[in-house]
Amino acid sequence: MLTGFGGFALTSILTHLVFIAISWWALQALQFDKLLRANHVLQARVLYILASIALGSTVSNFFLDYLQWSQQLPMIFQ
């Protein structure tokens, strides 16, 4: 399915971006207002961005590992 490093690199970039965007969207449902100080909007936005990157990258790495392992399973029977 993914031939060579180029295909895997492109897939990795795209999945990271997609899962970071999904994480950003999902984190919008949480109310961080009660945890953050008032009038610290910039810090709140940076926190949302960093949390989205951390969560999205973790989920993307899991997805990519699972994809790679599923492609390597047929090699057991060779």
TrEMBL record:
Pfam families: DUF1146 (PF06612)
Superkingdom: Bacteria
Sorted UniProt keywords: Membrane, Transmembrane, Transmembrane helix
Transmembrane segments annotated in the record for this chain: 7-27, 47-67
Keyword Transmembrane annotated: yes
NCBIfam families (UniProt xref): int_mem_ywzB
The name this protein goes by in its record: DUF1146 domain-containing protein
Biological source species: Mesobacillus boroniphilus
Lineage of producing organism: Bacteria, Bacillati, Bacillota, Bacilli, Bacillales
